[in-house]
Amino acid sequence: MRLEPITNPSLARNILPPFLAIAITVSVASLLAMLAGANPFAVLGLILKGAAGSKFAMLETLNRATPLIFTGLAVAVAFRARLWNIGAEAQLYAGALATVVFGTGMLHWPAMALLPTLAVAALLAGALVLLIPALLKVRFGVDEVVTTLLLNFIFLLFVSMLLEGPLKDPMGMGWPKSERLIAAARLPRIVEGLRLHWGFTLALLAAAVVWLIDQRTTLGYEMRAVGLNRAAARFAGIPVNAVLIKTALLSGGLAALAGFSEVAGVKGSLTLDLSPGFGYTGIIVAMLALLNPLGVVAAALFVAGIFVGADSMSRAVGVPTYLADIMLATALLLMVLAILLTRFRVVRE
Amino acid sequence: MTNAETAQVVLRLDRITKRFGALTANDAVSLDLHRGEVVALLGENGAGKTTLMNILFGQYTADSGRVEVMGRDLPPGHPRAALAAGVGMVHQHFTLADNLSVLENVTLGTEPLWRWRAEDAAARARLARLASDFHLSVDPDAKVGSLTVGERQRVEILKALYRDARILILDEPTAVLTPQETDDLFVTLRKAVSNGLSIIFISHKLHEVMEIADRVVILRHGRVVAGMATAKTDRHALAAAMVGSEVSAPRVAPGTPGVALLQLRAVRTPDRGNAPGLKDVTLDLRGGQITGLAGVSGNGQAALADLIGGLCIPDTGRLDLDGACPVEWSPRVAVESGLARIPEDRHKTGTIADFSLTENAILESYHKAPMSRSGWMNWRQAEAKTRAILTGYDVRCPGPDTPIRLLSGGNMQKLILGRVLEANPRIILANQPVRGLDIGAVNYVHEQLLKARDRGAAVLLISEDLDEIMALSDVIHVMSEGRLSPEFARGTMTPADLGLWMAGHGFDEGLAHAS
Amino acid sequence: MDFLDVLLSASFWAATIRIASPLIFATLGELICERAGVLNLGIEGIMVAGAFAGWMAVYSGLGLWPGVAVAMMVGMGFGLIQSLLTVPFGLSQHVVGLGVTLLATSATYYAYRLALPEVTSPPKIVPFRPWEVPVLSDIPLIGPALFAQTPLTYLAFLLVGVVSLVLYRTPLGLALRAAGENPAAVAAQGLSVTGLRMGAVIVGSGLMAVGGAFLTMSAFDSFFFEMVNGRGWICIALVVFGAWKPGKALLGAVLFAAFDALQIRVQQTALGSDIPYQIFLMTPYVLSILALIVMSRRAEVPAALMVAFNKGER
């Protein structure tokens, strides 16, 4: 078989494949639910209800979406320039680490000064972590996929080492845990009494900033050019290597903000289970959003909803929560295929 | 030589037609090949020769027409079928795996996959026998990646012979050979013929065609325009038929040359794979003049374009702008110095397919005012500029936000033209500027280049189309294997003369022409 | 325990070979994929799936070897998904690989929870028992290391030879190596690039799954989450380290395993109690990155790795 580009795709051609991708994903989920002995409609309904069926549910979804917006943005920014950042997990922990190093008593500033400082520290930490694989790629041609992946494991061990050593909470009863952040270092709730914290607003702000950079600045233009056609960018005189490095700094910084947000807004201290894979889920969010910054917000809400809904559904009918991961992986694979099929026709030879 | 009329027809191409989008590569081409015959397929680049042979070998499928081998219809679209029918092809760009040995490349695909290669000894012996029978000496265990180009070609030929090819197609085989290697190749081909093989030989090198071929078929713009026995013709008649007997009368007023704006002195650049680097090139580009660079593609034009365009610097020698060597050399520096570049491949390096017209129009200027200030893009200015280009250069499109991939080649090229000419450049590098364009767009582009010249710009026109070069250029150079010929003034050379230089003759034979 | 004592102990080398075994299977699998021109990032997930599938098959009553076969087939299934999307459709090998890893991992965890919903500690099976080769296993030092291992380890070493043989001495291996270097050469000889690449990915994925199964059926006797823990990614680095050659890849796997075995033991020495254990755990990953840096400068990469082949493209 061969692929032939379609010059003027019809509306049906643009809508049908993605629609089918979602339909198949839902069918697969239903099948798996039935395998677990549950009623598929009930399962899907419970997921929906758990995601958005009550004020509590919606707030929970927004909360869960916050770190995903950050990591989704990080991945989208990088993938746009064809920089394969799979290390958002390590960058997230770098941000969390920076937050805890400076926020547990080293600086006794009021919140207005302290919080932005911590955010910036987190940003820098994450940028630094991604800078290493980026430099290796630009200077030595080392594929960044594997280096960023391996760095995830290395960095987590590094954090573990610090948590059992210099950062250990003396009051922690032996668990590897950092000290708690001082009060001024905590991100306040948006509304008193609810779990939603200012990290969410920061995430929306970050999405807006990324959108702004992408659409309104020369850097955004350069990143898009380098990602779409590196040869043409080079021919036109765009400094490709410098653009890749800047992309890495931005991407790493964004992922690190997820760590800052989780520590300062939710947990209050750093433990090894801070992230249930937000860095990896960010990849799914970014791909589902077609690498668009505003789409990332929508995709993050969607993915968070699925996870929150699945948690709640699982408590109700006992179907394992991993159903959510399966759905997302299936959706991802089918979606990339669907997007191809909106632009190419399959021709038998 | 056999009596071509009465010998058996081993291959018949019957009205083969192939289109790529709007371009008709082959237009109802018919061709007969008789047993023991050597037929040369002659034509300029883009005439459709390689496409035709790719159809024969099954790598493309024709839109209409038939292929008959030994009287049997050949199923299209599968190299396997062609190989089974006894058709072997020696590609212009060798289909060899560098990491494998000669023996491995030759035996690749010849044994059923589900077997142990116990036939190693038999394969070696067979290869050795073929090598000696056909005068092709190779070391069967050498890695192909370490071989010279001439040696690699021998492997390509052995691949075909090993599979009992009865019809051998060679695509521009001598383009990459030294004269000595060419002689060896001809020995091989004669032995092949005496072994009953029939040969189609694609070439543009006229003296070789005269030496080895029984018959010549000439293609132009996808059509067969002439066919004759070599015994009844000569080089000059062939050259004329190949490039068209119309000697393009200069319908263009000559330019008034000024000072040299850009100069190359004894420049050398490294070879890159199969593409030759520049070998001791000295060139003057004068303002108010169009300098045409003729030559078969792949003879160093890319290296020259890269150098002048700011993408590389010379190994030895110098590049001077206005008499001084620039401190730094990059695409941005080149553009800042008033140099405009029209790239050879508008799809690969000229435009970004998914970008809009506006985004493409500012590729070289986005980083300066008024397109941006302190890192902030001014899209309104960019769009205004783009609209100016769209109207000023007659770009037909729905609007500046259209993704450029939806535009026709001609309109894309006009946008590129507008993008680079808006800055009023003093030096213009136009690399194959009208390749693949329709007549209307071609004339438009030429008009613009002439206007720029009349404003005092120095234009370097690189083109495979000799008509174009001859019609527009005030002075002409020919490029062959990285070497630059002396300068020929307008009107002093006929197409046939240039054709000879293009084929490398002037350089080898040391023909002196007044510069 | 002195450093030198560690190196000279039979148990150290035995542990090294045991730890190396899953790496050997998975590295061979990835090597086959990459030699044909396809990067298979599904390796991590496929190892997880293989670990569970094999173990589950035995837990459900099948024999050990049928369990290994089940693991292999599950791996091949994921390989089919991976190759279908990346070869004929030419989708990004990065994205598809990561998607397959996520799919395989989550499907495994889901199946595990479905099959064993109420367990607190993972149930055990009766794994492969070491099989001592008579006479040879009595040789001091290398005897217990090389000749008193489980059958799967012997299979791993055997496979290195088999893969080498197939790759370098058969027409199929020749075609595979050509497909990863210059698919045009393969097509010009009348072979199917798509068929070769897909076949390579499917078979390679099967091997990766067997590598995962080793963990649950030979090294340990139960399945738990986070079992594979990045071994798949390390194998990708090992392929580079081994310059895409089976013999050298074996060497790399053994070297890495030695480091892993070493760090466990050195922790118990005087030196070890001063250095945080995380440093030791880090070394395989750090070494992998170093290996990549060193090897990326050599041009032994299959030239057509990650380059989609579009037949007759103009």
Q: What is this structure's SSE topology?
A:
The complex is a heterotrimer of chains A (349), B (515) and C (314).
Chain A: E1 2-5, H1 11-35, H2 40-52, H3 55-80, H4 88-103, H5 111-140, H6 144-163, H7 198-216, H8 218-228, H9 230-236, H10 240-267, H11 278-288, H12 293-317, H13 322-343, E2 344-347
Antiparallel strand pairs in A: 1-2
Helix pairs in contact in A: 1-2, 1-13, 2-3, 2-12, 3-7, 3-10, 3-11, 3-12, 4-5, 4-6, 4-10, 4-11, 5-6, 5-10, 7-8, 7-10, 7-12, 8-9, 8-10, 11-12, 12-13
Chain B: E1 9-20, E2 23-34, E3 38-42, H1 49-57, E4 64-69, E5 72-73, H2 79-84, E6 87-90, H3 102-107, H4 120-133, H5 149-162, E7 167-171, H6 179-194, E8 198-203, H7 206-212, E9 215-220, E10 223-229, H8 235-243, E11 260-268, E12 281-286, E13 289-294, H9 301-308, E14 316-321, H10 331-336, E15 339-342, H11 346-350, H12 357-361, E16 372-373, E17 376-377, H13 379-392, H14 409-421, E18 427-431, H15 439-454, E19 458-462, H16 466-472, E20 475-480, E21 483-484, E22 488-489, H17 495-502, H18 505-509
Parallel strand pairs in B: 3-8, 3-9, 6-7, 7-8, 13-19, 13-20, 15-18, 18-19
Antiparallel strand pairs in B: 1-2, 1-4, 4-5, 9-10, 11-12, 11-14, 16-17, 20-21, 20-22
Chain C: H1 3-7, H2 10-35, H3 43-59, H4 64-86, H5 93-115, H6 142-147, H7 151-169, H8 171-181, H9 183-188, H10 193-219, H11 231-241, H12 246-266, H13 270-274, H14 277-296
